[in-house]
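My current task is to audit a protein record that another person submitted. I have pasted the whole thing underneath without changing anything:
***
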Amino acid sequence: SILSEILAYTRIKDAAPKPLPVAALVADALEGLAIPQAVTLRRSIPDDLKALADRQLAVAALRHILRNAFEAAAEAPPGIVAVAAKEEKGAALVEVQDSGPGVSAKDAANIFSPFFTTKPRGLGLGLAYARKALALQKGGVTLAPSKTGARFALTLPAA
């Protein structure tokens, strides 16, 4: 499992972006993810919003962000993970907000660095993978300001 994650990070393929519905990318990313029983998922994604994305890379990046959000939200039950999307400045913006403990100012500077983790059993490649995979598609991911929990803003070019 550890070796597989390291190989996935180091061998990210070149992106082949196509116009894809953002709602479908989020649905694919959620498929197979375990949503903790004490966590509620809320979605607000326009059906007509499309992004220029490589399906495999975009889904994997979203899955890493969503997995972290579910784990964080489960730490403070009842937890909430909200996924919202909109078009903004020529980009498809997907925001993932959780009700967990948030990211400390000390850790915020390092969270996208490979092998940085605050989890006792974490490898520290999820956020690094997400950033690299989205960058290959002319997108990105940032930790956005949030009053509670953590909020990640993912962008891909709008289609």
